[in-house]
Amino acid sequence: MLFVSDGNTGVLINTAPALGTIPPGSQIFPSPFTETPFAVDATGIIFGSADHGIAFDDSTYSVNYSLGFNATPGFENVVTPSFGPVNAATPVSFPIEEGFGFLPDLWFGGVRGTGAALGQAGVLTVTTPPSAQPGPVNVKVIQPDGTPIFDPLIFSYGPAPMFVNGDTATPAGGVTSDIIGLGLPTDPSQVQVTVGGKSASVVSAKPADIQGIYFPFSYPYPVVDVKITLPPGTGDQDLQITTSAGSATLPKAIHYVQSVTDYKSSDKFQAVVLDHKRNQLYLSAGDHIDVFSLVTQQYMNPISPPALNGQKAFWGMAMTPDSSLLLAANFPDGSVALINPDQPSSATVVQVIPSGTFGNPGPERIATTNTGKAFIEPKSFQEAGCGGSFYELDLSTLQVTAITYIPDFCVQPEGFPMAASADGSKVLINTSDISGPQQVAIYDVASNAWSSNFAVWENFGPSAAISADGSTFATGSGLVDSNSDLLGYLSWQDVFESGTGFYLPMEKVPDGGSLVFIPNASFVDIFDLNHGALLHRISLAEQVPQVTDAMVLDPNGQTMYLITSVGLTIVQLGNAPLSIGASDTFHRSYGNHGYDSWQWVPTDNDGKRQRFTSDGDLCGS
Question: According to CATH, what is the number of the domain 160-256?
Answer without folding.
Answer: 2.60.40.10
